[in-house]
Design goal:
By secondary structure, the protein is an alpha+beta fold. The protein is 25% helix and 23% strand. A five-stranded mixed beta sheet has the order 2-9-5-4-3. A four-stranded antiparallel beta sheet has the order 1-7-8-6, with helices on one face. The protein has a two-stranded antiparallel ribbon with strand order 10-11. Bound molecules: zinc ion. The site of zinc ion has 7 residues, from loops.
């Protein structure tokens, strides 16, 4: 989003070329008409959604899901996966491509977009939350730590990789019961959430499978991961082999020595 803001803010849409209409809402044919001559006032992030704030009181919203990419050029061999190309009045082009086609692009009014995208159901941004508000959300809440961290309606933005990193940094097992944690432990959890997301954002994301920046640049945060993807490798803290299991229906990595179950 930082890169998109830098590259797109102030630009005017000139034309829209739709290659895969199925991923566009409400329908592909409105995009060209509604966007022509419209200026990008800002690009912001809400949870995992990219939101273009437009000069015609509309919002262009993109969710990358598994394999979506928003880039200023088409990568070699990826042309057939291009969903939509936005051309700006300065002739620069922005491509949204998606191999597995789980991504979505919405164009709605500022009144409608939150409801149709599901943004209205998102919890607060953890980077903007106070510790006491965070504790209030999770204290005595029933469920497993990882499941609750992934629930976008409680706090938004934490995905599978970050949930494992947050649990490790807090010294808690991903399957620890939240309702058994003290306020002090949840306070520590809050600090880990802010630290892990903050570092991930600072390092421009994790590029272990599909994520790349808008110029094809890889994120760098994969080099800083403590547990995710490290099955069988020694824990950086205690040298015990990292374990992989399934929690919250997702591949989950943890150290069985450093991370306690309650
Ligand atoms: Zn350890």
């Amino acid at each position: 989003v930082r890169e998109l803001r830098e590259g797109a803010k102030g630009k005017k849409f000139w034309s829209v070329d739709v290659k895969n209409a199925k991923l566009l809402m409400p329908s592909a044919d409105v995009f060209a008409d509604l966007l022509k001559g419209v200026r990008v006032l800002d690009v912001v992030r809400r949870g995992k959604f990219i939101v273009f704030v437009l000069s015609n009181h509309m919002r262009l919203v993109i969710h990358l899901r598994m394999t979506g990419r928003v880039m200023w050029h088409v990568e070699k061999g990826r042309d057939k996966y291009v969903v939509v190309t936005f051309t700006f009045s300065d002739a620069t082009k922005l491509y949204f491509s998606d191999v597995r086609k789980f991504g979505r692009v919405w164009l709605y009014t500022e009144k409608e977009f939150e409801k149709v995208t599901g943004i209205h159901r998102l919890g607060p941004e953890p980077m903007e939350l106070s510790k006491s508000d965070f504790v209030e959300i999770f204290y005595k809440r029933k469920g497993m730590l990882k499941n609750l961290l992934l629930r976008q309606d409680l706090i938004t933005g934490v995905g599978n990789i970050y949930a494992d990193e947050i649990a490790f940094r807090t010294g808690l097992h991903p399957q620890a019961r939240m309702e058994k944690l003290s306020k002090t432990q949840i306070g520590k959890l809050f600090e880990s959430v802010q630290y892990c997301l903050g570092e991930g954002i600072r390092h421009c994301g994790v590029s272990v499978s599909d994520f790349v920046g808008t110029k094809g640049n890889l994120g760098q945060h994969q080099h800083y991961l403590q547990v995710y993807g490290r099955k069988g490798l020694p824990c950086y803290r205690c040298k015990t082999a990292i374990v992989k299991t399934v929690a919250a229906g997702r591949g989950t990595f943890y150290c069985h020595i450093c991370q306690s179950i309650n």
